[in-house]
TrEMBL record:
<dbReference type="GO" id="GO:0046983">
    <property type="term" value="F:protein dimerization activity"/>
</dbReference>
<dbReference type="Pfam" id="PF08100">
    <property type="entry name" value="Dimerisation"/>
</dbReference>
<dbReference type="InterPro" id="IPR036388">
    <property type="entry name" value="WH-like_DNA-bd_sf"/>
</dbReference>
<feature type="domain" description="O-methyltransferase dimerisation">
    <location>
        <begin position="30"/>
        <end position="97"/>
    </location>
</feature>
<dbReference type="InterPro" id="IPR036390">
    <property type="entry name" value="WH_DNA-bd_sf"/>
</dbReference>
<protein>
    <recommendedName>
        <fullName>O-methyltransferase dimerisation domain-containing protein</fullName>
    </recommendedName>
</protein>
<dbReference type="InterPro" id="IPR012967">
    <property type="entry name" value="COMT_dimerisation"/>
</dbReference>
Length: 135
């Protein structure tokens, strides 16, 4: 199996390749970008049209260089678009992940963020046999 870029099927069928293992290992990165962008208000700061990294950083009271790196990562994940050094949210992000949007669905990301914390404790559960304490 050489399921490059599609780790979802890697464990389900066919022969597992090293690339498949790495796809699984690195699969958390887009999720972390998404969750952190939402939590820190990046999508809200980008909302409404094209903005530079400096403009977004100013709204967030954040470092411009770090903001640009995060925005570029979000572009790679398809969540934000970039043209001529300016950024805007993808349409689905603008519609569903900007606070105050008519069809806002970002609350589910808060639940996902909490779930990630629990999943990271699987090793502790394996050793102790005790369930993860409820938050």
């Amino acid at each position: 199996m050489t399921g490059k870029g599609d780790s979802r099927g890697a464990a389900r069928s066919g022969e597992l390749e090293l690339d498949d293992i790495f796809d699984l290992s690195w699969g958390w990165r887009p999720s972390v970008l998404l969750l952190q962008a939402h939590t820190t208000g990046v999508f809200d700061a980008v909302a409404g049209g094209w903005k530079t990294a400096a403009e977004v950083a100013g709204k967030l009271k954040a470092d411009t260089r770090a903001t640009g790196l995060l925005l570029d990562g979000l572009c790679g994940a398809g969540l934000i678009q970039k043209t001529d050094g300016k950024y805007k949210n993808a349409e689905a992000v603008e519609r569903h992940l900007v606070r105050g949007a008519t069809d806002y669905r970002g609350n589910i990301l808060e639940l996902d963020k909490r779930a990630v914390s629990s999943w990271l404790k699987i090793g502790e559960v394996l050793k102790s046999g005790e369930p993860i304490p409820k938050p």
